[in-house]
Specification:
- It contains one helix and eight strands.
- By secondary structure, it is mainly β.
- The longest helix is centred in the N-terminal third of the chain and has 24 residues.
- About 5% of the residues have low confidence.
């Protein structure tokens, strides 16, 4: 009789452990949203999340955006600004608790159009709110600092950015 009770208790404790793992596995792994910053005036982004443990995850992002040539005209009118299609990509590590995270990562933009410098690399860091449930909004507030390829880039690269999206 003691063996049967011990066996049942072990089975029940094992089932409880499975529920905790299942809850972490339900974290949304896809995000879509709008991004302002990282070399684009506005961009549509797709993001994929890989959960490492309950307190950290990796995020990979790709997008398509729009920006214009940055010009300052002092004497007389300016010629029309060139328009660019921007392809931002980034990988970041996110550390925190259930919904609030510190984000640190590396990114790259490819600039499509007639430009002298078609790409730039940057570091990024900031705050991310990432809900645990699907069909909830997430957002990021971050800084991005170019470190390679920016010296001859013709567009305005804002050092701060904001993104809002939906967890799927």
């Amino acid at each position: 009789m003691r063996l049967i009770i011990l066996f049942l208790l072990l089975c029940l404790s094992h089932l409880k452990g499975q529920d905790a793992v299942l809850k972490n596995a339900m974290r949304p792994i896809n995000n879509i949203g709008l991004n302002i910053g990282e070399g684009s005036a506005i961009a549509l982004i797709y993001e994929r999340i890989k959960d490492l443990d309950g307190k950290s995850f990796l995020a990979g992002k790709i997008g398509i955006g729009y920006n214009e040539e940055f010009k300052i005209c002092v004497f007389g009118p300016c010629s029309s600004a060139k328009q660019f299609t921007i392809f931002p990509t980034s990988v970041s590590a996110n550390l925190g608790n259930s919904k609030n995270y510190l984000e640190l990562g590396l990114g790259h933009i490819y600039v499509s159009g007639k430009t002298n410098r078609p790409s730039a690399f940057y570091i990024l860091g900031g705050y991310r709110f990432q809900p645990l449930d699907r069909n909830k909004f997430n957002f990021r507030v971050y800084f991005s600092i170019p470190f390679s390829g920016y010296d001859n880039l013709e567009l305005l690269f804002l050092p701060i950015g904001f993104s809002v999206g939906l967890c799927l």
